[in-house]
Amino acid sequence: MQARLIAFYLPQYHPIPENDEWWGKGFTEWTNVTKAKPLFSEHYQPHLPADLGFYDLRLSETRQAQADLAKEYGIYGFCYYHYWFNGKRLLERPFNDVLNSGKPDFPFCLCWANENWTRRWDGKEQNLLFKQVYSEEDDRLHMQWLAKAFSDPRYIKVDGKPLFLVYRATKLPNPKQTVKVWREEAKRLGVGEIFLCRVESFASEQENPGLIGFDASVEFQPDWTQLGLPLQKGRFWHLARKLGLAHQAYGTHNIYDYSTVVQHMLAKPNPSYQRFSCVTPSWDNTARRQAGAIIFQNSTPQVYESWLRTIVDKTLVNNYSTEKIVFINAWNEWAEGNHLEPCQKWGHAYLEATRMALRDRKTDFTTSLLRETCLK
User: Fold this and answer.
1) What's the Cα-to-Cα distance from 65 to each of 106, 108, 153, 351, rounded to whole Å?
2) Distance between CA atoms of 312 and 365, rounded to whole angstroms?
3) 8 A C-beta contact, residue 312 and residue 303
4) How would you label 11-32 residue by residue, b for 16+ Cβ within 10 Å and e otherwise?
5) In sequence order, what E strands does the chain have?
6) Which of 23, 58, 162, 163 meets the CB 3.0–4.6 Å disulfide criterion with 27?
7) CA neighbours within 13 Å on the CB side: how many for 235?
């Protein structure tokens, strides 16, 4: 048996009228990516794409190339972020084309990013651009749209049921009622049973999903509650102050050692409910944020491979589900320094690490590689 690896997928790489209005003509995620600069010695910025270049997701050739690359290195499918606002969708073009064309022939599921749409792309969450408005009528309308995606033969299923994620289930005013409406509507539309997962993005969401009617949870990485102490409070912070940069550059950000973060994540206790685990290859969102960014320093493909291998091993012996699924955050979050797609620094190294983590399964979760790279 092999675990199914599902990578979160951001569809922000094409212009839309709303982004043109809010941030200027032609804005895409690449706008932020290319503005990033290194803030200290050995700080890896900017993250620039290699093989696929600064692509446009309106092109079918790009979407096919992504799927081919993912499949080659052991990724089972993509989890597309889905932006729904009371019947209006944003950044919908790439997934619409995937759904309507039948290409690429590559498994997928959806994650409803149900937060308000703000200037989060440039670190200004307080500026509201699109607000979520919830109602029973909208719940039914939403499921009526989702039913078409759920019925696609490529749609990923758990125990035979379409898998649907909600990024911030706690934002739903009455999650149990929403879930009830969704399940009723899915049955009425002929979809049948659906498998609902809440994403554990914040501390308040790390509880039994059954309490609000969901079937399981998906761990989000990074888990902000388990990062440990930032390096910033140590040598980086003092160096910044010494150079007079504490409030000018990286002294305003939070810097963590990637291997230490991995160690903290692996030490998390197992939940008493079904939760699909997640790993992240790296993290650095300074491309989006002038202040308050989080940087994982010293991330390498080797440490990532060890983390993923350990999580895959644990997943294969987990008795909560016959479905062995591990999420990876992310396939292409370039402005968060968080991507499996090849970059100019690492090339295919993270993809190769992903493929290697699926090979030569072992039952010893504290392998020598883990001890040497994650726990030192």
Assistant:
1) 11, 15, 20, 14
2) 10
3) no
4) bbbbbbeebeebbeeebbbbbb
5) 4-9, 77-85, 88-90, 108-112, 117-119, 124-130, 157-158, 161-166, 195-200, 216-219, 254-257, 275-276, 278-279, 294-297, 325-328, 332-333, 338-339
6) 23
7) 5
CATH number at residue 76: 3.20.20.80
* Type of residue found at 196: L
Q: Give residue for tokens 């670190």.
A: 123
Looking at 247-334, list the stretches that DSSP marks H as alpha helix, in order from N- to C-terminal side: 258-266, 301-316
Strands 332-333 and 338-339: antiparallel
Long-range contacts of 19-23 (CB under 8 A, 24+ apart): 22/119, 22/129, 23/121, 23/122
Are 11 and 332 in contact, with CB atoms under 8 Å apart?
A: no
Gap between the Cα atoms of 372 and 59, Å rounded: 43
Q: Which of 354, 359, 270 is nearest to 317 (CA)?
A: 270
**Beta-carbon contacts of residue 299 (< 8 Å; ≥ 6 apart):** 258, 281, 282, 283
Instruction: For residue 328, give every residue at least 6 positions away whose Cβ sits within 8 Å of its Cβ, in sequence order, or none.
Output: 5, 6, 7, 8, 75, 278, 279, 280, 281, 308, 340, 354
Q: What are phi and psi of 165, to 5 degrees?
A: -105, 145
CB neighbour burial string for 286-312, b if at least 16 within 10 angstroms, e if fewer: bbbbeeebbbbbbbbbbbbbbbbbbbb
Six-digit token string for 82: 């889905």
Cα–Cα dist 335/33, whole Å: 5
| pLDDT for the residue 222 | 97
- In contact, 292 and 252? CB cutoff 8 Å: yes
Model confidence pLDDT, tens digit, residues 256-280: 999 999 999 999 999 999 999 999 9
Domain of residue 16: give its range.
4-374
Burial 256-270 (b: 16+ CB within 10 A, else e): bbbbbbbbbbbeeee
How confident is the model over 64-105, as pLDDT tens digits? Answer: 999 999 999 999 999 999 999 999 999 999 999 999 999 999
What would the DSSP string read from start to end of 158-221? ETTEEEEEETTGGGSSSHHHHHHHHHHHHHHTT----EEEEEE-SGGG-S-GGGGT-SEEEE-S
